[in-house]
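Per-record layout

source: Pontivivens ytuae
name: Methyltransferase
length: 223
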Amino acid sequence: MPFENTLQCGDSNQIIGAMPEGAVDLVVTDPPYGVNYRDRTGRTVKNDDTLESVLPVFDQLYRALKPGGFCISFYGWNRIDRFMAAWKAAGFTVAGHMVWTKDYASRRRYLAYHHEQAYVLVKGQAKLPGKPLADVQPWVYSGNKAHPTEKAVEVLSPLIRSFSRRGDLVCDPFAGSGATLVAAALAGRRYLGVELEEGYCRQARTRLEGVVRYKEEREVVVA
C-alpha cells in the first residue's frame, strides 16, 4: 500500500495502522466532532454521530508520527473532554492552542459562533521554531462547496509551512475534499490522506490532479 503522495479511500484506523512507525512528519486534520452535523443544505459528515471510531485514530497517528512531530487537530468545543482524553491517552502533549476569527457567525444558538479552534499536539520534545506562528489567525471562508465542513487551503497552508519542512510527509486521516493535501502539495511537502466517503475521495483526487498540472505548468514556465 503506498503511503506517499496518495489519497486512500477507507478506514483511517486500518490504513494509518498499517504505516511504518515514525513515517509521518506532521498531522493536520479536522476530524468529525461527534455532533451529527448538518449544514444548511442538509449535507452531513459520515461517522459524525459518534466518536467511537474517530478517537482511536489518534493512537495510530501517535505511533506513525516521528518523535518531535506535531499533530494539529481542529475540534468541537462541546466534545473537548473526549478529544483531550483521547489525545493524552495516545501519548500526545499539548503544545499550544490556535483560534481563527470569523467576521460572520457560522452558527447561532445561545451564542453567535465567530471562531474556529485547534490544538497543537506534539510527540515528545520538539524544536522551537525560529519565528512562532501567532495563535490567533484570520479565517478564510472556503465556501463549503466541496464538503460541508471544508477548511480553506489558505487557512491550512501557514500550519504546514510553520510545522514542517519541504519534502516532509504531511498526513490527514480525515481528508474530506482534500484541502490539507492540496496545501501540502503546494508547499512542496509529500502527503497522505485517508477519507471514508468515496464521493469526497473522487473530489479530492480531482483537486490533487489539478495541483499536479499547475506545478508542472509552473516548472515549464520557469524553465
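summary: The chain is about 30% helix and 25% strand. The longest helix spans residues 198-222.
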